[in-house]
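Students often ask why we bother encoding 3D structure as a string. The short answer is that it lets us treat folding as translation between two languages. Here is a chain of 356 residues written in the first language.
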Amino acid sequence: MVKNIFMVVKNISSVGGINRVVSNLCYLLAKDYKITIISCTTLEESPAFEMPIGVCLIHFKKLYPDFCTKSFLDKLKFSYRFNKLLPKDSQNFVIVHQLLFPFFKAKNTTYIRLYHGNFETGFKKYLHKPPLLPPRIRLFDILIILSAKQIHLFSKLHPNVKVIPNFLNDLPNTTTNHTQKVVLSVGRFSEEKGFLRLIDIWFTVSKNPHLKEWKLHLVGDGELKERIVAKIHSLGLEDSIIPKPFTKNIQEEYLQASIYALSSHYEAFPMVLLESGSYALPSVSFDVPNGPSEIIQEKSGFLIPDKNLQGFALKLQLLMENTHLRKRLGEGAREIVLERFSKKAIKPKWQEALNI
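And here it is in the second language, the structure alphabet:
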């Protein structure tokens, strides 16, 4: 029997962590399954990240121009229409990243929710109390989360929770040159990513006369772009902070830097720490719930108590002043990615989840 995987995303053309995970999963599973991506809100746009040959792409809004998910009726309609796309004579796995709830279920089909967020942001109302009624997430047969530290919380909502972290499809052959004087941070220019407080941290760092040659590269785009640029200018940092647009060739950005800075207010499982680590970049990150503490260890970087901007600045300066330390921690970061977050390490977990 043919085995199909259908992956459901909001917009496959947007540059972001979810679509990067989708691309990696396609490369991981394409040899064993026929994969189709359902991009809900697009008409004909191309994927933001490369996909293996043979992966099909269906633009749901092109099939159904009235598609939306504003009301409960809309969501029911989406579930019904989606099942029409599933072949009846094969075994199907539906991996939902965004939007779809399986109110209607097709035969020979397993519905899996891969939840990319953390419990605190998505299910805050259930932090200290169980739900009175079964939440919609229980409609899925399997709930996959990214962090083992959250399984006790998600188990309140679903009886079949599995932990499968994000991973990198391939480790790069080249690593960075640690003598370069560039600190890098990549992500959406949105409130939760903390770029505004990273600028404040850099303002402190820039006062050190020994670090005048260093640059901070901010790679991304989003609704806070104008505020970020305005803040850079208001603090007189336009010569040392360089905003850059998103690029599909992100490898160049990692190879131009020797330190990675993560200033987010919250994360689920930051792919950027895996990517930067694979290029042997040591990291400085706030110890916000879940993600960073599962990736950064003593041998790979520094975790700073959340909101401690001064502590973040001090560790950043420590790395900036010591090439040998950058190299040693960077090599440790690459080792962690290879041992725990490579395709070889993660594929057995997906095989187990799909071997229903």
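Translate back mentally: The mean pLDDT is 95. Keep this in mind for the problem set.
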